[in-house]
Amino acid sequence: MQSILIVIQIIVSVALVVTVLLQPSEGGALGIGGGGGGGGGMGGFFSPRGAANTLSRVTAVLAALFFLTSMGLTLTALRGKPQPASILDSLPTQSAPATQTPTPAKQAPAPAPKQDAPSVPTPH
Q1: In whole angstroms, what separates CA 67 from the centre of its chain?
Q2: Is the entire prediction scored with pTM above 0.70?
């Protein structure tokens, strides 16, 4: 089922890109279907306005199909995977802390022996 939806998704995606690129350009758009002119970008089969209306309807239908196939792929991917009831349920469990034995107090370190040379090197 998932492989069929993937194939449909790819076909719808390519068709959607083609229909968007075929739409007539308005200003600085990327349309390659041509705008204005007597025959439009469809070789005179549609009037320019009719071609634009048809392409916009086809684009809307393809966009709806793309959305539906995306939702279908998501649902098939999630089917069969157990979902935790809470985010806290997915955290790794921690064992109770072990009882700690008191450690003896640390003694202060012995003072460092005096040195005749400076502790910071001086430039030559």
Answers
A1: 15
A2: no
